[in-house]
Amino acid sequence: MLVMCRQMQEAEARAFASGVSAADLMEQAGCGIARVIRQFFPVPGTVRLYLGTGNNAGDALVAGRELRAAGWRLQARCARDPADFKPLPALHWQELGAIEVVSAAARCDAGPLVCLDGLLGLGASGPLRPDYSVLAAEMNRLRLEQGASTVAMDLPSGLDGDSGAPAADAVIADVTVTVAAVKCGLVADAAVQHVGRLSLVPLAELEPFLQGDAGAELLTPDLLRPWLPRRHHDCHKGQAGRIAVLAGSPGFYGAAELTCLGALRAGAGLVTLLVREPEAQAVLAARLPAEVMVRRIDDARAAAEGFNALAVGPGLGFAHADEVAYLLREAPVPVVIDADALTLLAQRGLEPLRNAAGPRLLTPHPGEMRRLAETVGDRATCARTFADAHPGHTLLLKGARTVIACAGEPLRYNSTGHAGMATGGMGDFLTGVAAALLGQGLPPPRAAGLAAWLCGRAAELAALDSAPESVLPSDLAGHLGPAWRQLRERRCA
User: What's the sign of the alpha-carbon dihedral 2, 181, 229, 479?
Assistant: First the structure.
């Protein structure tokens, strides 16, 4: 569920009137924010609290207390004199005792520097006041000049929580930890650059009072965990999904390789790569993991026989377009349609989709989406419109905030990933993961949501070992299992 700022404030007022303690909520929020910071920054460093005078500062101070106990160095930058704090933040400021209040010129010499944006909360709108604008600009400058990371609490200061429109001086966050519920503006197209990675800290005591848009939701661990496939103890490989991959052509064999790798790592019982040319069979059989079977076929129209799900399109080319179009229409099993198969649909019209014999999961990037359908409005509107026009099929619209739409289902926004995923081949790996989940019996909307979240989280884990810019699609293979495990064991946000 997404909420407007007014709805969030009304929920808090009703909760307080019923006896819920504001101090308890602040404690839960601050501790949750600290846990998220430690997830993304497992090695302690310096956390610099940027404090306004409202309760957002109180959340930041609780988080700071928890981080200091975990070995972090604590610093503060205050927009105003701490004597102006509201009662709860003032109490936490006093309880923290000696806290290092630093100047704008202060430097961090060792470990990560995390700027915690606790300047403003839900009640603020429009351009920042001068004293707040100076501190917002300082956080943004530290990101660029000193490699600092910014974590925003609830909303990046200067971002409209309803529309997502950023003020000119708004904070640019690397991670935004929103509390209790996701605010509508956080998933707006205009907000992505300022929000970064989006994480939710739920507050159970507020949930009964929340009212908002139930037609849209964020993919969170709590939502996704029950969707994870769980095998019976006597399961055999034929029950874990027989996946066929129709991909790869001369010069584009890597796309087929990544798709098969994604399917293997997502738990497919059997993965078979289907190719037309003898040359492709020889080359790919030598390149692919031993677990992948490479089989030459004479006609792609029969590719679905004996399989539970198909992945069609990565690096496929257009040499056998008629056969592929027939397959997209007539295959009775779920099909992930990606890359060249999407282009084929765009060239020939969407008739194979409208008359398809089974459910289809389309995974376009923005350029492919523009070719598939006339896109008017923001990404969410485009996704909803397309899904409503093609009931029974699912759209996974890739991008900085991946959107998943299916008629009759809530619109879903992915929360994981980073800008280092903007490299060729990530979508091929995602296609394999989604196909494996379909083959294990997940409905396409759930397979799409899990695939997007797991690939994004795997990329985050890979970045912890190096840097986001260095993460390759093949690196996701070694981190997909840990992402899966973290999700199952409630060790991620």
Answer: positive
